[in-house]
Amino acid sequence: MPNAELPASTRAPRATRLATLCAFVLICCLFAIAAKEFVMPAAQPARTYPARDDHPMEKVAIAVDPYDLEDKASIFSVNYRNYGYMPVFFVITNDGDQPVSLVDMKVQMNTKDRSKLFPATMDDLTRRLSHPSRSERTTPLPIPLPKKELKGGVSRKTWDEIEQAQFAAKGVEPHSTGRGFLFFDIADISNPLAGATFYLTGVRDSKGNELMYFEIPMEKYLSAPEAKRP
Fold first, then answer.
1. N or C: which end of the chain has fewer CB within 10 A?
2. What are the chain's domains?
């Protein structure tokens, strides 16, 4: 009788096995997330990015590549957008024969409503990640993961990720490219890139002379065909 209902004694073990299997898969997924390691993206020459500013006479070019989309931001173990931050990949290429100094580098992004955004410091990031506001808190995991040493209120892994990701170069050698992430606080901005402009000042040549300031309208990134975005 193929359509006959299975006895309760048979259905119960099957239900138990299914629940056990689901729990096992969930645990594996959670541990896979916990084990994820950050890997810095490779950088192309700055002039190959849609959002760029090239100074041919000074032989220096810069580019920015916002990690505003979920698939791009998945390289991080932390969803920084949930905490009100947007990672922006910053690239600077020196095609000259002398090094350039970034010791006095200053970055600023002006939004459409004239708000001025500056890159977050390590303290800014760890403070926000340690004490998110109610609206920024993520849903707690149903199964506790192994605890790790905390540093600055965040896990050692998160601390290391931020430290590795943040742009920290003090200079760029001849015929080379520097790269790293800048984190901008966009917690109260619904569409931070539309109409925004990225500015960079304080780049100096080997003689200490400041290069002309760099300016990148973020519309260059937004209007670029997605297939051409790095």
1. N
2. 37-228 (2.60.40.1150)
Query: Which amino acid belongs to residue 144?
Result: P
pLDDT band at 10 (very low <50, low <70, confident <90, very high): low
The two tokens of residue 45 are 């020459």
Read off the DSSP letter of residue 166.
B
Helix (H) or strand (E) holding 172: strand 171-172
Closest CA to 163 of 152, 171, 173, 172: 152
The residue length of the chain stands at 230
Residue owning tokens 């932390």: 78
Residues 6+ apart with CB under 8 A from 213: 199, 200, 201
Strands 171-172 and 60-66, bridge-based pairing? unpaired
Structure tokens at 60: 């220096």
Q: Indicate whether 102 pLDDT > 70.
A: yes
Q: Which two tokens stand for residue 133?
A: 């506001």
